[in-house]
Amino acid sequence: MNVQALIDTANALVANEKGLLAMDESTSTCNQRFAKLGIPQTEEYRRNYRELIVTTAGLGNCLNGAILADETIRQSARDGTPFVKSLNGARIIAGIKVDQGAKDLAAHPGEKITEGLDGLRERLAEYFQLGARFAKWRAVIVIGADIPSRSCIETNASTLARYAALCQEAGLVPIVEPEVLMDGAHTLAQCYAATEQTLVAVFNQLYLQRVLLEGMILKPNMVLPGIECATQQTANEVADATVKCLLRTVPAAVPGIAFLSGGQSAQLASARLNAMNVRYKSRLPWSVTFSYSRAIQQPALELWRGEEANVPAAQQALYHRAQCNTAARRGEYTVAME
Known about the structure:
The protein is built from 12 helices and 10 strands. The chain is an alpha/beta fold.
């Protein structure tokens, strides 16, 4: 394990007031989003869409890294340039999603465990050769009646730590993503409790499994009420709860926290990230940035709709959302930017 290389890459992923783009949707998820917009669900259309993203001019001004799916890291632009090379040319580090999805956790109705550890060491070695320098693994925590359970949290925390240790062994910076879902009618306080319990368990397991904290990135949810909750707190209230939770649970050795959007609207994801940086940036031990998927991609996808003639407008929308989130990273986002 090259400790310094891991530290350098982790720091590079959160440097220069930039963030990350998650473009690592599975084939099934990508097809579902295409179907809603009448886009053919074929490998070629998925490739076309990803080429639209990686060839967007100026994207390196806003992004340090892009998380790819297995299909995407093997694809190339029409001119034969591998997507990884296109990203690197834009000063964007290529990453790879390596988990194989959340499945039902046996004997725990309503709860999930993420699979994909079998054969992971070999897959990580291949991804490194393909040009990836960081990886991502998502764990799913659901809030509901009598859940999340202690066993669900601990099982997912252990799996995340095992994944992270294997990544660092292979020379890849692990992005550790324990996501407490927004689904449901739970309150902000309930989300806070579940998030705190989850992060405590995750960092305990990372320590036990000797993961280098300086060579990883945390990708958590914001502390939010459920989307069906009658009370929806302001951006400042979300920022206060989220930062309080992170300060109680995340060691200062971690170089950066890159939030997932988790189903938030593009504007809310930007506003809430902005509030954290406006109110707390100078007092935080880690960089606070974004690792958004739909909150950056969705406006562009809705404009593109699979039509070549719409590519310029879609790229403009993608770049605009990336700019909005880079501004939020600096604490300079305003509604006027919309």
